[in-house]
Amino acid sequence: MRPTPEQRRKNLRLALILASVAVIFGVGFVAKIAAFGF
């Protein structure tokens, strides 16, 4: 059972959204540490 091209595109889009959310959280965490020391 192979995914259709449309299903692959939806999965890729979801993966990019989740990855960008993770990056935003990571950047925010690093910025908070840099700003407040801990």
Automatic annotation (TrEMBL):
Presence of the UniProt keyword Transmembrane in the record: yes
Transmembrane segments: 12-35
InterPro entries: CytC_ox_assmbl_put
Domain of life: Bacteria
Alphabetized UniProt keyword annotations: Membrane, Transmembrane, Transmembrane helix
Record NCBIfam families: cyt_ox_assem_30
Descriptive protein name: Cytochrome oxidase small assembly protein
